[in-house]
C-alpha cells in the first residue's frame, strides 16, 4: 500500500454492565464510574491486527468523547496497543443525543486526522455502545465525513486501498468492499481482543494523549444542540423469581404441568 | 393527519412479519407512504395494505449497504414532508435512517418500542432494565426504527398502491462482492416465535434434546453467545445484547447461566422457564419456573410427557 495509514478507533467510556446502572432524577445516566466499553475492544483489536499485518506505516489513534473520567478509556486503549489518544470533553456535550455525538465526533476525527496530514484514513467503531445502544453513531459519522459505512463487520481485511468486510444484511451474508477513506463498525464476532501485559502497561505511560474541547474544534454549544431529549425514565420492575424445584426424576413432568396450567401448550 | 414515511430497504413478493407489523403501526398513526430500495418484479402487490397510500422507489434498485438508500429517504421526505419516518429495527435500516437524519437535521431514535405522531418514542435501555421516553425538540420529522413484536401483526388488505420512481440512483461507493442467502432453519423465526427454546454451554455441543423439545413445542431455537461462538448453531440464533432481542410468550432456557448480556435479549419474555444444574445460576433470579437438574435427565422427561399428552 502506498503511503501511510491512519486508523482512528472510537472508544466509549461506559458504566460497567456488571454493576447496577441507573438513570438519575436529572434523567442522565450515572457516569461516576466506568470502563472502556467491551464492544469497543473489538475495533481496536482489528486496528492492531491491520497494523501488524501491513508493511506500510500504520498509526492507530484512540478517540473518545466523554466527561473527564473518560480519559480512563483512552488510557486502557493505549495499554492495549493504540499509539496515541484523543479525548474530547466539554460541558456542552452532557446528555448528547445521536445527532450531537456524531456532530462532535466528526469534527474530532477531522482534528485527529490533521495530525497526520497526507495519510489515508480508516475509522473503526464498535457495533453499539453499551449505554447508548443506538448503533446509529457509525452511519451518522460516515454521513458527516462523506465516506461509506460498512457496519456490522464480522471480518475485516485491508487489501491495498480497499477495505473488505463480511457482514449480515437481513438474511443474506455479504462480502462488501469500499475504497478508503471509509468507516467500519466491528462486531464482537470479528475477533478475540487481547489483554495488555505488564510491559504494554508500562509502555503506555509514555504514549501521548491530547485533551481538547469544542472550542478547539471551532464549534459552539449551539452547533451541537441535541435534536432529541429524554423526558422520562423509569426502571423496569424487576422480575420476581418464581417456583424452583429440584429434579427428583419427575421435574420434566412437573414443568409440562406448569406450562399446561399457564395455558402455554 | 399524521404523515408517515415507512422505509424498507428491500421488498420481496411477501412482506416479512416485521414489515407487516410496521405498516400496522403506520396505519394506526396516520397515512403512510412506503419508500423502498427495491421492489419485486410484481411491483407493489405486497404493499396492498390498508393505510398505504403510495409507494416511492429509486430510478433503479438500490441495495444495502449503498449510502444511496439514505439519499432515497431524503428525496422521499422532500416530496412528502412527513411527521415520522419509520423503519424496522434492522442494521441496514438503522444505517439508512441514521444517515438520512444527518441530511434532514432531524432527531433519531433506534430500537423504539413505540412512537407518537407528536415526535416522541419509548425505548428500553441498559440491557432492558430501564424504560425511557424521548421527545424531539423541534418540529419533525422524527426518524425511528421499531423493534419487532410491538404491534399486533394484522395488516388489512387493500388496493395495490401506485408506484412513483424518484430520481435517485444506486451509487458505487460500496461494492457488493458476494452475497449468499442463509439457509432457512425450517423452524419459526426467532424474533417472531411465540415459544423459544434457548440453549447454552450446558448442552456441550449436542443439540438433539433441545431440537426435540423445540419440535414438540413448535418453538424457535435460540442460543447463548458461548453456544454460537462454539459454532454449535449460526450466530443469527444468538439471543442477547449483541444478538437478537426476543419477547416470546414462553422462553425456555436450557444450560444457560443467565449473564446480564444474555438477559438483555430475553427478560421481557412472557414466561421464563429455566433448567440448570447449578442452583445459584443467575437465570433462576428471573425464572417464573426453575428446575435445578441435569438437562440430560430433565429434557427427556419433558419430551416424553409432551408426547404422552399429545397421545
Ligand atoms: C459485550 C458483551 C456482549 C455479550 N453479548 C452476549 C449476547 O448477546 N448473548 C449471550 O448469550 N451472551 C453474551 N455475552 C456473553 C455473556 O456474558 C456470557 O458469557 C454468556 O451468555 C454465557 O453463556 P452460557 O450461559 O451458555 O455459558 P456459561 O455462563 O458457561 O453457563 C453454562 C451454564 O450451563 C449450566 N450447565 C452445564 N451443564 C449442564 C447440564 N448438564 N445440565 C444443566 N445445566 C448445565 C451451568 O450450570 C451454567 O450455568 C456477551 C458478553 C460481552 C462482554
Ligand atoms: N462518546 C463516544 N466516544 C467515542 N466513541 C463513541 C461515542 N459514542 C459512540 N461511539 C462509537 O460508536 C459506536 C456505536 O455507538 P452507539 O451508536 O451509541 O451505539 C461505539 O461502539 C463507539 O465506537
Automatic annotation (TrEMBL), chain B:
Domain called Electron transfer flavoprotein alpha/beta-subunit N-terminal: residue spans: 4-186
InterPro entries recorded: DHS-like_NAD/FAD-binding_dom (IPR029035), ETF_a/b_N (IPR014730), ETF_a/FixB (IPR001308), ETF_asu_C (IPR014731), Rossmann-like_a/b/a_fold (IPR014729)
Keyword Transport: no
Co-factor remark: Binds 1 FAD per dimer.
Pfam families attached to this UniProt entry: ETF (PF01012), ETF_alpha (PF00766)
SMART domains in the cross-refs: ETF
Record Gene3D superfamilies: HUPs, TPP-binding domain
Residues bound to FAD: 201, 224-225, 238-242, 276
GO annotation terms (biological process): fatty acid beta-oxidation using acyl-CoA dehydrogenase
Keyword terms: FAD, Flavoprotein
Cofactor(s), by name: FAD
Molecular function GO terms recorded: electron transfer activity; flavin adenine dinucleotide binding
Oligomer status and interactors: Heterodimer of an alpha and a beta subunit.
Similarity-based family: Belongs to the ETF alpha-subunit/FixB family.
Known function: The electron transfer flavoprotein serves as a specific electron acceptor for other dehydrogenases. It transfers the electrons to the main respiratory chain via ETF-ubiquinone oxidoreductase (ETF dehydrogenase).
Name the record gives this protein: Electron transfer flavoprotein subunit alpha/FixB family protein
